Each structure stands twice: as C-alpha cells, then as structure tokens.
Fold:
Amino acid sequence: MADVELRNITKSFDKDIGLEKVSLKINDGEFVVLLGPTGAGKTTTLRLIAGLEKPDSGEIWIDGRNVVNDSPAQRDVAMVFQQYSLYPHLTVRENLEFPLKSPILKTPVDVMKRKVNDVAEVLRISHKLDNKATELSGGEMQRVSMGRALVRNPRIYLMDEPLSSLDAKLRSELRIELKRIQAELGATILYVTHDQIEAMTMATQIGVLNNGRLEQFGPPREIYENPSSQYVATRLGSPRINTLPVSIFGGAPAGSALIGLRPEHIHIGSGQDCQVTRIEHLGDQIRLHLRLAGHNIITLTDTHTSIKVGDVIAIQPNNPIFFDANGSRVV
Amino acid sequence: MSFSVNEPSNRQKWGAGILVISYAIITLLPLLWIIATGFKSPADSISYPPKVLFEPSLEGYVNLFTTQTRASEETFEALGDPTTWYDEIVRKKGMVIVGPSRFSERFLNSVIIGFGSTFFAIVLGTAAAYAFSRFRVPLKDDLLFFILSTRMMPPIAVAIPIFLMFRQLGLSDTHAGMILLYTGVNLSLAVWLINGFIDEIPIEYEEAALIDGYTRFQAFYKVVLPQAATGIASTAIFCLIFAWNEYAFAVLLTSGNAQTAPPFIPTIIGVGGFDWPAMAAGATIFLLPVMVFTILLRKHLLSGITFGAVRK
Structure:
C-alpha cells in the first residue's frame, strides 16, 4: 500500500472536459470515495491512476514516484470495474488466479491456491470456484471481480461503482465487508460511486466531483456539515437539502442569496407559516412536504406526530447554511 | 388452441422439417452421385439410363492414383501373376501399372496452398482487425473500405495483370506465388469478419488484463484471442473453402510444379474417352478435407456466422 497523489490533472476527450486541474492526495490506508453524478469525471480519475488514460497535463505520484509514463502493469494497482470485468472463457478460480499468474507477480502455485481460497471464503464464493464465470448471477460476478482485485496486494485498490449492480441487501452486506477488509488489510482504496450512503458509510475522506472539478475534499462529516458550495450540499443528505431565497426568513449574512436548510435543520413550532401538502410514512421517520411562499420544502418529524395534510404549521431555520448567487458558501 | 410467441405450432414444425429435408436432398444428391460414380466401373458410369444399383469397383481409384500402359502378351507372361489387388484390376483391362499418377502430388499442392494461404490470411487478418478495432488508426474507415473494395470485382477480372506480374517476379507456378495470391484475395474477408468479432469483445477485458499485470500482447493472446476463437475459426473455414476450390487462377498460373487439384482432376483422361470414375474418385477425395474441417468446426461455424450475437 502507498500514498497516491494527483497534481493538477487535466484531461479532455475530444472537446469535452474530463477533468480540470484536479489535485488530490490519498494517504496510505485511507478509504477515499469520489462522489458525483454521471460524467463528473469519477471514472476518468480511476482510469488515469490505473494508466488506462494519459493526462493532458499534471502529474500522478504513486509511492513517491511520478508514474505518468508507466504502463498499467508497472503501476501495480488493482481495479474493480463496474461491469464486464470477468473473463468469460475462464472459470471463477482461473479468474481469481489470473492476476497472480501475471508475468509481474508469478506467484508460486501453493501461495496462489491459498490466496484464492482465502478470498473466495471472504466473499462467500467458495462453492462456485469451478463454475464458468458466465454461469454466475450478477451479484456473484461482482463479488468475483472484487475478489480478483483482493487476491493481490497492490499499492492501491481502484473501485468503480463495484456495488451498483447488486441488490440492496447484498450491497449493504458487502459495504460492511469491504470496510472490514479495508481495516484489516490497511488497504488504500479509491472508490467511485454516486451513492451517498456508500460514500458516508465507508469513506475516511470524500471527494465531490462536479463537471471535472474537485469541489470539496474532506472527511464525510465535514462534507455534510460544512459544504463548500450549494452543489456539494445537494450531493449529500436524503431527503436533499432545501434551498430557498434568503428573503423568506431574513437574517442572512451579507452577500448571500440562498439559504440551505437540511430537512433536520428546520424547527417546527414558530416562524413562517406554511402548508403541509403531503406526508410520507417511512417507518422510522416521517417526511413532511411543505409549501412556503411558492417553494417546496421537505422536513422530518417524529413518528408520533399529529400533523395532517392541509394543516398550517410554522417553521424556522435552525443551523442554516448560506450561499451566494453562484452557489458558493457564504460564512 | 394456445398461442405462443417462441414455440412454433406443430404444423409449422412439420413444414419447416419438410423444407429443410427437401433442401438437403437437393444439395446432397449431386454429391452422392459423385461419390457413387467413383465406385462404378467405366461402363456403368456412362450407361443410359443411369444405374442407381451397381457392382462397386475400385477401378476409378486405381486409375486415379496410377499411370498405366497397354501391354503385350509377352509382357504379361514376363511379369507373372499379379501381386496386388490393384494390379489385378488393371490387368483385367489388358494394362499394366507403370508408376504412380500425379494426383497425390497435386493433392498435396492443394493442401499446402490451401492451408498455407488460410494460415497467413488468418494471422495477418487478425492482426489488422485487432489494430482497426482497438487503436486509433488514421483514416480507419477509409482504409477499411479500401480493403473491402478489393472484393468488389471478381478476382479473375485482374487475371491478366496478375499473370504478367507473376511472370515478371518469377512467381508463376510456385507454391509461394499461389499462397500469396490466395492470401491477398482472402485477406479482405478475414479483416472484415474478424474486425466484427473483435469489436464485439468489450475492451474492458483487455483493460482488466493490463491492470492485472499483463502486457498488451499478453492481454490480446490470453483474453481476446480465446474469445474471438469462434469467429476466427469460421473465418478460417471461409478462407480455406475459397483457396481450396479456386479454379481459374490455378489454371492460369500453375502448370507443373504448383498445380492444385481442381485444374488437375478434369485432365484425367482414360483410354477411349473421359475416365469418369477416376474423376469422381478424385473429386470425392478432394472434397474430404474441407468436409472434415467444416464438420470439426461446425459448432463454431454456426455461432460464428451469426456474428457474435450469440453469447455475451
């Protein structure tokens, strides 16, 4: 395992910007999650580190060495692809052995056997080892492709939405499993997702990408509580943060145009009157959809509430975040 | 009556079955006739009405593989009794075997030229197709079209220039010349077909192999090739069939040294008219390699000609 650092990486595809001046440092043993929508440059970042793409400018340092001109094999990284990652003409065992058999590693047979069995155990695919890769279910395939990365001991694991094709139950199980493996091995992982729950639960650091720019980089709590922009604030939290013109509540700092209210940052009982338009019972929480001066707001309330659709309730901000007209944070 | 989208009705099944069987009979009948003629005596082979039932004879095969000459009574006496079964067949006609015929030689030429040109067409075609499929080749579409355009006229249309070129270069009637020619003609087909097959293989597999510590060539060899094998095998069959059956260039460019079987078989002239059983025997033997090759690869051929749409 090793430190990985991107310095001022820019990469464009034909005329589209892939990444723009992205700098990012992943310390040894960290679990960094890159969060962003499709096209934000998450996968491009992984491919650049893996050596599948060459940056237009900037440097990539792995373990104290600029690797921009190294081949993927020389960089000694492992990558889990979102799909298509199992070799269909090989069995599960052969798939797992494939990286170990590479001319760079040339693992002895007994070591290889032990490693493959260990990983198969962890990912619960031992009983499928001699099946053809194409005979597996989607979840099993994805576990095998994670296994193909985990059999190695690379400098960094790169994971491109490895859980996105799994069902919810398996996803939450593997999330915990992955976190455990990471802690156990002390592995350095760069993980790409658009799923904020994955980001919040697994990451030691989160990087939020927007249109090829790194908007904010920091621990999950900081990203959630102290977002640097409106964009970052909307990426995390479910239901999403409510953004309203500052004029509705008043009391905003100079230069701010928008007030951001997380659903849990709305105090019910006093303040502005608004109408309840819809109530969603989720079991552990109740979501209130409110209408205030032509704006929709979502907030939460406890499960024993007596509020009904059509009621008029008073709300006021509690711990709001302010943004200027461009969406930048105003403190 | 129930209706199902993917299960044909009984009547449809019967209809399809009858259609397939009648087509099979129509295409197989000439083939069976050739095989049967090979085992007829020369008299039976030209009898009218044609004989369906006949006494099998190996005379055609003996004539095909041997050169014979008419011999006098004294020669027969000097030779004594026939020592082998084929001697006996020949003696009955009042002939003696003076040596092997050129058929085996011509057949071997066909094997060398047919399989040789198929090998080169496949190796070069796969390399070119991989490059077209995976690398950013300048003017890629134009190049591919140019390669295809070599197929837009019948190859024989350029027979005279090729004849002259071959004569100038000393390639006339050589194995190398014929292999070169057939490889050239087959290459466009090979590049196009294999390009399609490689395009079907997601590039992610190779990327995964690169990251797993392999070089590009190793990734090609270990990941792409096994998956393209089906398509490559079916392309090889097409190439072999063309090179094997090619007649016009073979007549034009070869005479002695590198002559293949197709121009040779019709020249088998027996005593007093065409020796049909010998020709049929030659044709039968000539059919065998392609038949065996195709049967061995038929599974690949079937999934191959559906252009990789089969498995993912």
